[in-house]
Amino acid sequence: MARTYLTSIIGAIPCVYKHSPDDFVVEEVPAFLPCGEGQHLWMWVEKRGKTTDQALGVLAAALGCSRRKLRVGGKKDAQAVTVQWVSLDLPPKDYEARLAAMDTGAEVRDGYVRVLKTRLHRTAHGLGRTHGNRFRIRLRDVPADRVEDLRQVMATLKQRGVPNFFGRQRFGFRGDTDLVGGALLRERDMEAVSLICGRAGDLDTGRRREARVAFDAGDLGASLAAWPRSDFGPQQLLRSLVRQGAGLTEASAKVAIESLDRRDLGFYLSAFQSRLFDQVLARRIEHFDEIWPGDLALRLPGARKAFLVEDLAAEQARAAAGEITASGPLFGPKMPAPEGRAAAMEQAVLAANGWGQYDLQGARFQHSPGARRPLRIPLMDLDIRDMTGGDVGIVELSFQLPKGCFATSVLAEIQKPLG
Q1: Which residues are the active-site residues?
Q2: Which of 33, 213, 358, 375 is least surrounded by Cβ atoms within 10 Å, i.e. has the fewest?
Q3: Of 330, 333, 336, 334, whose CA–CA distance to 360 is shortest?
Q4: Which residues of 14-148 form beta strands (DSSP E)?
């Protein structure tokens, strides 16, 4: 289904980003800084050309700990230069020497992981302990006669807010992590394992394709051997299946799923919620900065507790001033539900995907009980630097977004991809 954009009156602007990792720079904005004492080691980590999981693997190897013991405030882009805090409870006494001797893990050209500084703190890092992220993004090959259009797009987003889509990157390069999450929530574990480890398609290449083809052929050992080391989820599932020795059955698949890291499991479950949220936002895009009677609203930029809209005139004025926003659903048994027009729209999306309220009571929803998410987000500290020369050139965008929000939502309004 073609996506509708807030700035659809302005046509797609051709440009390229992530030409190199240095074109996409992300810096975490922490909610607080480590105090300097305590049992948790906080590391200010810079990575280039690596996934967050790959970076955690490098740190875990250096510190002699399990990757699962490292805590982050969120995953960052791989094809980028990113800086964020990572924490470890009870680090080894010689952690400074270990980090100084760390193998940067250059598995890809020009890729690295660096620890820029360390500091102790009394508690661990984690989700919710950031204010957001600062971005510096270079858009290359921008036609000189479209720079003013780009400025108009950014001005609209600055004035009205950014549609808070999760976007395609939330659903994996195959676009199916939400299908995995839906299968898990319905406890269709064989289907979930097959989606994670097999069902080779046109998008799969190299060792990953080899691994998926072997899985589809029933050769679990060969599939395990073929998966790259950085793909922890498929490897964990396959190790469990091989140990059980029963092939892929409903029983063995359930045991394998239960062996997954809780964070990996949560990633798939939240992808299901994310897909439905995006569908609700797409239906409401022309009115996404309005407030309706019965809406559950959130204060901007980052409040988490929603309140019911009862005084429409007063709350619409606050919405127009950018102080509050309507929220959308992250469906689950504990999600607060709106009333009226917003409720009808959300139930229609749920039904269109073959789900009902009763289906949201499954046991695995305990890992993703549901919440409200803002439909729009403020574009903060915007700066546009035009370095265009001749017919095409470079435009550098700098801005800050609240936690849990994606720069791809901004870039999509510029490029307007069809999907």
Answers
A1: 77
A2: 358
A3: 333
A4: 24-30, 40-48, 70-72, 81-89, 112-121, 130-143
Identity of the residue numbered 281: L
Q: Is residue 351, in this structure, part of any structural domain at all?
A: yes
What's the domain range around 215?
177-260
Number of domain units in the chain = 3
pTM (predicted TM-score): 0.86
Give the pLDDT band of residue 368 (cuts 50, 70, 90).
confident
Are both 268 and 253 inside the same structural domain?
no
User: Would you say residue 401 lies in a domain?
Assistant: no
- Three-state secondary structure call for residue 162: strand
390 — phi, psi (to 5°)?
A: 75, -145
Quote the CA–CA distance of 46 and 62 in Å, as a whole number: 15
The answer to the question of residue 318 being in a domain is yes
215 contacts 190 by C-beta, under 8 angstroms = no
- Go through the chain and tell me how many residues it has: 419
Residue 105, pLDDT score: 66
Compute the radius of gyration of the chain from its Cα atoms: 22
271 shares a domain with 368 = yes
Residue 47 lies in a domain: yes
pLDDT tier at 367, thresholds 50, 70, 90: confident
Same domain, 294 and 354: yes
Report residue 399: phi and psi, to 5°: -165, 170
Structure-derived torsion over alpha carbons of residues 349, 352, 353, 356, reported in degrees to the nearest 10: 80
288 and 241 within one domain: no
Instruction: Give 239's strand partners.
Output: none
